[in-house]
Here is the input.
Amino acid sequence: MRMLLVGCSGFVGRALVPLLLQHGHQLTLVSRSAQPLPALQHPLLTRLRANPADPSSWSQPPLQQALAAAEAVVNLAGEPIAEKRWTPAHLQLLHDSRIHTTRALVQALAALPAGEGPGVLINGSAIGYYGTSASQSFSEASPAGADVLRLCQAWEAEAQAASGRCRLVILRIGIVLGGDGGALGKMLPVFRLGFGGPIGDGQQWMSWISRHDLCQLIAQALEDPAYAGTYNAVAPEPCSMAQFAAALGRCLGRPSLLPVPGPLLQLLLGDGAKVVLEGQRVLPERLQQQGFAFRDGQLNAALAAATS
Ligand SMILES: NC(=O)c1ccc[n+]([C@@H]2O[C@H](COP(=O)([O-])OP(=O)(O)OC[C@H]3O[C@@H](n4cnc5c(N)ncnc54)[C@H](OP(=O)(O)O)[C@@H]3O)[C@@H](O)[C@H]2O)c1
Here is the structure.
């Protein structure tokens, strides 16, 4: 398929793009930077520089033509959630980078002549949709939470506007495990030195998915018309932070007892600490109904693969 990829130059995109190329798809990678994924050179990969959050980008010929010619679109664009303090200005950026990009993309889809353009849109979202809870479990049917990450609700609403136009798949992504980035990438250096441990009281839930499985899921959802609607993109066995820290310590052959105090994180990350100090137990009910085969369904396997 001819595919247009937005927000696929980061931690997930680094693994997704090579996988889609392996499947023989022809890719246009839209990025705000001139040379995204510089190490990747492939005859089926074209780079297109544009700011996808700016509606005027989508009416310019290169991007407009690439969208019209695409059979599928993946949109994962969004300013990183847990990198900086959640000042009002940064919260606005977290919101706008997702909402404006998705809105501009969906409006550009709507502007294409009827019967033209992509047949499927895979759009990102996150398990932050549900809010946090120590005791509840969340399936796709659970209602949205009311905390700061309710921006996921607005993000999904923008994507929903494309549902009359093409097959729409929304992925509520959990904590993505890969060795070279994301939450695990930040924890690994500390754990490798033997100073790792649970963050906060360790009781909070972590609903995770290996980056390998997430990318396989995206590839499958692009290729298989049976995928439609909203899915929790998480492995079937969420764990507590304490279990996660113990498993990571075992995997690396290092002690993992020193708890990382919540207040310290709060100081460093402000409200962003919420992402790791409070969690949610999210289950992949729809993926299991659909028979999605997780390679890394168990935490030990996922950590071994991510750290090897
Ligand atoms: N990693 C996780 O654990 C996790 C968990 C839940 C949900 N997610 C969601 O999944 C998506 C992909 O995750 P990731 O870990 O690959 O993220 P990432 O490494 O931060 O990459 C995000 C992508 O979004 C684009 N982007 C960043 N800031 C932007 C801005 N201000 N305006 C427009 N585009 C911007 C970047 O594209 P360019 O710089 O090339 O333009 C980049 O390709 C994100 O939306 C994230 O919120 C990730």
Summary: The first helix runs from residue 13 to 22.
